[in-house]
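S.,

Sequence below, as promised.
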Amino acid sequence: MWLIADSGSTKTEWRLFDAGGIHEKASTRGLNPLFFNKDKFIEVIKKELPSSWFSNVSNVWFYSAGTATPKVKKSTAEWLKSIFTNCEIKVESDLLAAARATCGSDKGIIAILGTGSNSALYNGHAIIEHIKPLGYILGDEGSGVALGKSLLRKLLRNEFSEQLSQSICTDLGLSYEDIIEHVYRSESPNRFIASCTRVLHSHRGEKEIQDLITTELEGFVTLLSKYSLADELSFNFVGSIAHYFDNNLKDIIESKGFKLGKIVQQPADLLVEYHIKNQ
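The prediction came back faster than expected:
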């Protein structure tokens, strides 16, 4: 049996499979190794994955945010090796996961739009250009955090119509004090801010909300346009924000004259297909 993990900031999708296809699926919390020490990382996997998997796997591919450097890849592989003791283990970035899932062995512009955002130019084998995402304070354009920040800023400054503001406040179920507490004193403010985007989707018929979404996603597409070959290659997206606001992305990309490729909410199943095909 083989095992794939696709880890974002919030959740990790796991697939147990062989050459015939997927046998089992599981989800655990996000496992970005930059936010874990060895003991906590191992504890989460042992607690949240079926115990039968640990002795039933020969190959593990672990794709995650936070694994861009050789040092982090090496330490993460060592942590995994202590759980999956008789396995060949490969640790790769979430960007490569997005590339393999959406483009396979073809060239393309790759983008992740979830809690955070990231992007790259993929040559069919490897990432060859990368614009630094800079995290949710300095960057992460178009992400759940970017959309959530714009929403909360406009809401708390009374920039929406009164009726829309009341509706959003009811849906969020949070006071001004609650929001400030979550943003400035919680352990994971980025996750809280991104979670507020659920009201954008439920109010997407409102022009004020459409304008907000369009402004944020246009900024991200403009960033993607800086890649060489952007005028020739398709733009491919993975992540919850890309999935839920796919029509907005389609309209923006079409209006700017670019080519749209795939929009995939979760790449895990497509990664299974990629690895079966390339074994």
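The two ends are 13 Å apart (CA to CA).

Coffee later?
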